[in-house]
Each structure stands twice: as structure tokens, then as C-alpha cells.
Amino acid sequence: MKFLADLHIHSRFSLATTKNIDVENLYFAARKKGITVLGTGAFTHIGWFGELKNKLIQAEDGLYIPKKVISGKIDKFIPESCRGITRFVPTSEMCNGYSSGDSR
């Protein structure tokens, strides 16, 4: 099976990111770009986790879709040629960089 995925995104709770990153905007942008699997980014952040839990429902094991109340409002603004399915997969990022005065 072929699909387009973007697994390295950030939530609005990350530093230096736009604050309008939410399920609605991610879903809309993914559909317009033909992305069928989209990472959630920073799903372990308590605020973002709560929003994901409230706005997504399980589609398959480990994959989620926006609730109909959300996708229904957005789908009417998506061009016909861009319509399809987008699944969200919980993702996070590990940061190995730190600043402690150590030379590492």
C-alpha cells in the first residue's frame, strides 16, 4: 500500500511554533497536501493529549480520525480533488540536546 505521511510535526505547545496548530488545521492542511497519515507531534503534552482525546476517535489500531462534528465542518472547504482519508498517529519527539554547562 502506498501512502503519504508526515510524522515529524510539532504541536502548538512546542517552542517556536504557530499557536493555531490544532486538529482542525492539521486535518485541513493534510487533506489539501494529500497526506494520508499524519503524526500528532508531542502527544505526551498534557494539554495537547487532552485536545487529541476530545477531538479524535479510533479508526484502526493506533490510527485516529477527527470526530464527524469536526471533519464534517472542514470537508466542505476541501476541494473535491483533495478529498480522501487522513489518519492521525500519536507521535512525539525525543530531544537529546540540553544546556547544563557541560561540554557534551
Task: Reconstruct the topology from this structure.
Elements: E1 5-6, H1 23-33, E2 37-39, H2 46-55, E3 56-60, E4 63-66, H3 68-75, E5 87-89
Parallel strand pairs: 1-2, 2-5
Antiparallel strand pairs: 3-4
Question: Can you describe this structure?
Answer:
With 104 residues, this protein is of the alpha/beta class. It has one domain (5-89). The chain has 3 helices and 5 strands. The strands form 2 sheets. The chain has a 3-stranded parallel sheet with strand order 1-2-5, with helices on one face. Strands 3-4 form a two-stranded antiparallel sheet. It starts with a strand and ends in a 15-residue tail after the last strand.
Give the CA-based shape: elongated
| Proportion of strand residues | 15-25%
Instruction: Please trace the helix and strand order, writing H or E for each element.
Output: EHEHEEHE
What are the segments in which pLDDT stays under 50 over at least 5 consecutive residues?
A: none
The count of β-strands is: 5
Major sheet: size, sense and barrel closure?
A: 3 strands, parallel
Quick overview:
The chain has 104 residues and is an alpha/beta fold. It has helices spanning 23-33, 46-55, 68-75; strands spanning 5-6, 37-39, 56-60, 63-66, 87-89. The protein has one domain.
Question: Which features does this protein show?
Answer:
104 residues, alpha/beta, two-stranded antiparallel ribbon
